[in-house]
Amino acid sequence: MRLELSTEDQAFRQEMAEFFTTEVPASIRTAVLEGQEISPDMIRESQRALNAAGLAVPHWPTEWGGRDWTDLQRHLWHEEMVRAGVPAPLPFNTSMIGPVLAQFASQEMKERFLPATANLDIWWSQGFSEPDAGSDLAGLRTTAVRDGEDWIVNGQKTWTTLGQYGDWIFTLVRTDPDAKKQLGISMLLIDMTSPGLEVRPIELIDGGHEVNEVWFTDVRVPGENLVGEVNQGWTMAKFLLGNERVGVAPVAMVKRMLARAKALAGDQLADPLTRARIAELENELLALELTALRVVAHSAGGAPHPASSVLKLRGTELQQAVSELMVDLAGPASLVPTAAEGSDVPLWARRAAPVYLNYRKASIYGGSNEIQRQIIARTILGL
Q1: Does residue 11 belong to any structural domain of this protein?
Q2: Is residue 110, in this structure, part of any structural domain at all?
Q3: Domain boundary among 174, 206, 231
Q4: pLDDT of residue 374
Q5: pLDDT value at position 246?
Q6: Is 19 strand, coil or helix?
Q7: Which of 89, 264, 330, 332 might form a disulfide with 94, Cβ 3.0–4.6 angstroms?
């Protein structure tokens, strides 16, 4: 495997770095790099800056803003974006519903939704998981029943990330209760201001409000908001989840986190055990990065490489390990509440524990690490 970038790829990387560090407002990038809370307005402003330059949805079809890049170029685009502290384009828009609409929706639906989705004029929420249908998504029970040309939706979705900001929600619903589980599912686009739709917050272990429950009580949805064909939803869900898992190893983010940890360690770097711990994480991260590049180099036709499961598994473990390192570096200061006004404890130390707690989710979402081990055993090791 060639480990050096070509001259063309090096120039591409430099072009991306220059754009991200000059065209996205410094105030937004500073907030990201310093681990501050990122507001919805910051995410919108950042994504719109990228979209204006044609850099928000490079993996979409070119007619809808895509750039026809190689997988390596997409990897470099993402790495330089994270390195610069630019918020990634909202994944519900760009990596989930956007590609689904481009692949399955009617031309009229594409024209209605795709430009607004790329520019974050619509903030999309994901309506997949249910209290009894998470890992077994095909067991979902939210129903959609025909009423004339419309659909009447009843049921509940949960773990809807950032749903409190959502304008629309792309929702898997059961449209044929008599069909085999996967065969009776459709996808509807639902305006979140519809009567009967309620968003209820879920408070997480870190004290934050990041996820929600979404309840549907006789919500009327126009028939034109059906994506593709009736009972085609499971095909779309598999397509969407395949896109969601592209770039699952958070290499650039963990590199940035580890570099910040080293910069904040101060006198603790004199401790040989601390230095050894950081060195081990750096070595593990380098191995992960090389594996990610190898996967990118061998991915064909946009299909996920089997080793993507290795990236997801090890990447989330390292993400959690670095967040734990930050807590240990902060020591007792990590117990000071983040919102403590006038505290002499620096913000990074006050945020260390909440970030650590929040990243416990990383080994669950996008396919739990236990599931990834099964995939590795079956598709790579042949067990």
Answers
A1: yes
A2: no
A3: 231
A4: 87
A5: 46
A6: helix
A7: 89
- Residue 209: HSE in the Cβ half-sphere, 13 Å Cα cutoff: 9
The whole-number average pLDDT for the span 357-372 is 83
- The span from the CA of 156 to the CA of 176, in Å, is 17
Per-residue model confidence (pLDDT) at position 248: 63
d(CA 340, CA 207): 14
Residue 147's CATH number: 2.40.110.10
Structural element, H or E, at residue 95 = none
List 211's β-bridge partners, or say none.
202
139-183 tens-digit pLDDT:
899 999 999 999 999 999 999 999 999 999 999 999 999 998 889
Residue 126's beta-bridge partner residues?
170
84 and 24 in a common domain: yes
- Residue 100, domain member (yes or no): no
239 within a domain of the structure (yes/no): no
Rounded distance between C-alpha atoms, residue 325 and residue 273, angstroms? 12
Q: What is the pLDDT of residues 173-192, one digit of tens each?
A: 999 999 988 899 999 999 99
Query: Across residues 223-241, what is the average pLDDT?
Result: 92
| Joined tokens for residue 14 | 């430099």
pLDDT at residue 173 in the model: 97
Residue of 244, 284, 317, 341 marked catalytic: 244
User: What HEC string does 196-259 produce?
Assistant: CEEEEEEECCCCCEEEEEEEEEEEEECHHHECCCCCCHHHHHHHHHHHHCCCCCCHHHHHHHHH
* Rounded CA separation 326/328 (Å): 5
Q: Are residues 77 and 160 in the same domain?
A: no
Annotated catalytic residue 244? yes
Q: Note whether 214 and 276 are same-domain residues.
A: no
Residue 118, CA distances (Å) to 28, 41, 51, 108, 161 in order = 19, 15, 7, 16, 19
pTM across the whole model: 0.86
Integer-rounded Cα Rg, in Å, for the chain is 22
Beta strands in the chain (DSSP E): 124-127, 143-147, 150-157, 168-174, 185-191, 197-203, 209-221
